[in-house]
Design a protein that fits this description.
Elements (H helix, E strand, L loop, with lengths): L10 E5 L8 E7 L2 E8 L2 E6 L14 E3 L10 E2 L5 E3 L3 H5 L3 H6 L6 E5 L2 E5 L7 H5 L1 H13 L2 E2 L18 E5 L2 E6 L3 E6 L11 E6 L10
Antiparallel strand pairs: 1-9, 2-3, 2-5, 3-4, 6-7, 8-9, 10-14, 11-12, 12-13, 13-14
Amino acid sequence: MTEAMPDTRWFYLCTEDDLAVPNAFVTTRVGAVPLVAQNLKGRVVAFRNVCTHRFAVIHDDPSGCGPLRCPYHGWTFDAEGVPVGLPFNPTDFQLDAEGRRRLALNPASLARCGRLVFVRVATEGPSLEEQLGSGLFARLSALSEDFPRSGEPGETGDGLDDGSGEAWERFEAANLRVALRPGQALRLEALPPPGAAERFARTGNFLPAHTDTERPA
């Protein structure tokens, strides 16, 4: 991947629940490009995770909750990527509205498959459904809705080898490894995109909306 040829591949990032509250963010890296998805006043957006002023990484943690604020000079950005909070602007930067717009963050792409959130570097290219194929896209979307509750590893079989004899179905989608125990548990293991450190790997365990003991009579 180069700056002239931004990566058009989609990569799984997180679930909608991870970005449900204002200022919640999740980050990753694709090649040399850091990316961030963040909830800004209820709107979930994606950008290159790099300040356009001095090119510092904005959010260094894989996930968290806090303003989209560069640690270098404290610039804060809105949902359009425009810097709206500039300490000492009248004396140090003297940026008017047009100057601020010129320093907006570089956008990235964000797409959803049911409750699953994917990102990519390029702002144009094939849709997520085109990359996955319509059948796989529809199945992932349905599974994300069928298994909405986060579960502890022990609740979902603690991996795929709990000795219960229950069969797990496994398949892959983008950087996502999926393990399904129909009607009982869903496990999502996201591998780091190319060039990303292991700290950007994520594993989630999910349960149906109701377990057998919770289903209404």
